[in-house]
Amino acid sequence: MSQFTPENNVLVGTIPDIKPILLPEGNPFTSRVMQFEKMEISAPESLHSTINFWIHLTEAAKHAYADLEMAPPTLNDAAPFLKDAELLPYFPNVFKHIVAALNAKKLADEVKSVLTAMADLSDETLIAYAKTLLGQGSDEIAKEYLPFLSIALKAVYVKSATLATLPKLEVEQGFHDCPMCGDAPIASVLDPMDNGLRYLVCNTCETKWHKVRSTCHSCPNTGKIELLSLEGQESPMKAESCPECHAYIKHLDRTKNPMLDVYVEDLATLALDFTLAEENQQRLSMNLYLR
Fold first, then answer.
1. Lower CB count within 10 Å: N or C terminus of the chain?
2. What is the pTM of this model?
3. Where is the FdhE central domain (predicted)?
């Protein structure tokens, strides 16, 4: 017997002036820290040390983001619009800022040992690692480095996206991956200010781009997309599952609470991921806090 509860999949109506791309605004790590703190209050004590690490990591990224001075980016003529070669030189300093901030915190010995090992990484190595994270390189990266590298890269790309000025775009372009940086989406969202439209959220730069609800985030399927949740689980975070390619993505309805964070709510609903994996559903983009 299936553990899933299907949800109504309401099609988007005709709404004038649809914005195909919505750039991020402000420092996303500020509210993310607060959402992690709320998670810790209600979480079992056995998870407190893990959530506390996520809080410290996000706080370090918050300050690195705030201190990052960056000129508005020049854009490519076609998607992805952000130029990696222009942004990667910022990465080593942001990464070192985050590592230094974490070194000042009281953290577990195993985390401290990783921070010590990463302190010796050269700028050239860090940029090579960043290229690998962007899918442009093949350098082998120690698994324990990934959360720190990923959040530093996110800080750089989100900051650049907030400063960008977009050219006029047509809705019908129908991007599968992020039109700004080319990464896959971490989730789809419904936000109260978006007129009931579904947007995908980039896993790296947090740009949102419009995607009609009846279309798959990964393949050309424009038929039925199932919206699933676990029986008995009351959460605004569900999963969109495609019967054609068997890929799924988390879906967050923020119409009643716009402060909800896609990364935090994703981590709070990992039981849904485990069940989907048992049903041979595949997720194409991983939450950076689990890397």
1. N
2. 0.92
3. 178-213
- Report the candidate in 253, 235, 182, 243 with the shortest Cα–Cα distance to residue 215: 243
Is the separation of the CB atoms in 159 and 68 below 8 Å? yes
pLDDT in tens, 15-29: 557 889 999 999 999
Q: Are 247 and 259 in contact (CB under 8 A)?
A: no
CA angle 255, 258, 264 (to 5 degrees): 115
Structural tokens at position 71 = 């000129």
Identify whether the C-beta of residue 95 lies closer than 8 Å to the C-beta of residue 67: no
Percent helix, strand and coil across the chain, each to the nearest 5? 45, 15, 45
Q: Is the dihedral of CA 267, 272, 250, 280 positive or negative?
A: positive
Pair 267, 146 in one domain: no
Q: CA-to-CA distance for 7 and 226, rounded, in angstroms?
A: 7
In angstroms, the first-to-last Cα distance of the chain is 32
